[in-house]
């Protein structure tokens, strides 16, 4: 529920003349989302989304916006960034970087069935393949280095049991990232935050992935693990739902076959995906930022998922 930087229709009236979008007719803050300030923006030309970036810099943003452009040009279903008359995708508004992208139709499918998981798996594989020739490089800014930076900031807030879990898992992930199998994993641009609320459906038809602002260059398998940990679980327990896992993985494998190294790395990678979001939710919970409307997500949700991925073998990749 975040609008960190309020914007009014008057604010954009003049600002938007640099874009080929005609006059703005409506602007409405979007409550959902916790990282940026998002607004539905209607103009004479159509419906768009205006995002003001609260944490990412002008230097970091071209990777994300140009990746969306690159993917949209290769028929991967993502919002298309709108360039201004000077061809710029990122323009200052209220002193912060801002962008306008096309609005995806439909809505998020928060109770997915296997059919939805299959759509996501196939599109995710197509997205990975389409990103192979993307020329810009930027690491996953919420990868292992960020986990190492963040762990000491949240440890003091944890129970003895959770502090032990966090220290032990960080040790495990450091060793995993250094092993030969990990080094054989396929890498490229990944979304890295492909939760149910970052995908649009119209019924059973997937209309697009969005919110690429945690994307980076990382292992494709990390992306699959993050996605499975949100789309294919029982929300109360974190236990994997085999039918949805099979639907997503088989659809992905049918587009881009998984490798033997990925098969070996699958369980540790599911743990990595759970750790990453447990850490970011702990960080947001204990070091909250000012916002007009911000409801941080529950860290316990990913503590449960991490414990479950440690305790229970997941269905194989293929
Ligand atoms: N291109 C788009 N088309 C349609 N709706 C969009 C689009 N981009 C954002 N939205 C709407 O805005 C909401 C917030 O967007 P987004 O998820 O990018 O924000 P965020 O702050 O990065 O949130 P979080 O990282 O917590 O998912 C989405 O849940 C969706 O309802
Ligand atoms: N998708 C993240 C929030 C944005 O990164 C979460 O649910 O913790």
UniProtKB/TrEMBL annotation:
Start and end residues of each Aminoglycoside phosphotransferase domain: 27-258
Pathway: Amino-acid biosynthesis; L-threonine biosynthesis; L-threonine from L-aspartate: step 4/5
Protein family: Belongs to the pseudomonas-type ThrB family.
Domain of life: Bacteria
Signal peptide location: none
InterPro entries in the cross-refs: Aminoglycoside_PTrfase, Homoserine_kinase_II, Kinase-like_dom_sf, Pseudomonas-type_ThrB
CDD domains given in the database record: HomoserineK_II
Gene Ontology MF term list: homoserine kinase activity
Pfam families, alphabetized: APH
NCBIfam families linked: PRK05231.1 (NF003558), thrB_alt (TIGR00938)
UniProt protein name: Homoserine kinase
UniProt source species: Duganella zoogloeoides
EC number in record: 2.7.1.39
Catalysed reaction equations from the record: L-homoserine + ATP = O-phospho-L-homoserine + ADP + H(+)
UniProt keywords, alphabetically: Amino-acid biosynthesis, ATP-binding, Kinase, Nucleotide-binding, Threonine biosynthesis, Transferase
